Amino acid sequence: MSRRVVIEVIDSRVFANEGGSLQGELPVAALTRLLDLLTASDGFLTYRIKGQMGPYNRPQFLVEVDGVMSLCCQRCLETIEHPIEVRSLLEFIDSDGDLTQEELEDDSRDFLPNQKELDVAVLIEDEILLALPIAPRHDDCLPPDAARGSAIVSPFSVLAGLQGKAE
Fold it and tell me: Residue 67 — φ and ψ, nearest 5°?
């Protein structure tokens, strides 16, 4: 059974002003900037975007993305199934000069420039990239050599052997 995916391009101000709502599924394989980080690109992520007008009559989006992505563990190099649970409040502004110091220090929302042609898939991909760990790894795993039972040899052990011969 194939799933039809509609990728939308929206005007951020109009979408928020009308209280727009989008939801659907996005194939992981469509997230091209993420593919190098993945061990598998099958599956779908569900998303929901709700528009509203916020303080100072600024457009806001509530963005939710859920799913699971197959990342490569940086310690053992095996697949790690990483749950994605993005909850973001994005506020659109005309220019950086519109923000107060208090707003700049507010971590409860992120600010983006107003866009007449905002690609929803790119927005979702940006939010996922920001939510991914820098170095994904299992809570308890061993490096690949340790898993095979080989002893870890220190590169300095050769120097220790040379010191004994020099005397």
Answer: 160, -165
Report the distance separating Cα 73 and Cα 136, nearest Å.
5
Q: Are 53 and 16 in contact (CB under 8 A)?
A: yes
pTM over 0.70: yes
d(CA 28, CA 41): 5
Say if residue 95's pLDDT is above 60: yes
Share in percent of the chain as helix, strand, coil (round to 5):
30, 35, 35
Query: What values do phi and psi take at 5, rounded to 5?
Result: -115, 125
DSSP 75-116: TT-SEEEEEEEEEEEEEEES-GGG--HHHHH-TT-EEEE--S
Count the neighbouring beta carbons within 10 Å of the beta carbon of residue 67.
18
User: For residue 23, is it left (φ>0), alpha (ψ between -120 and 50) or beta?
Assistant: beta
- Smallest CA-to-CA distance from 34 within 116, 109, 43, 144 is with 43
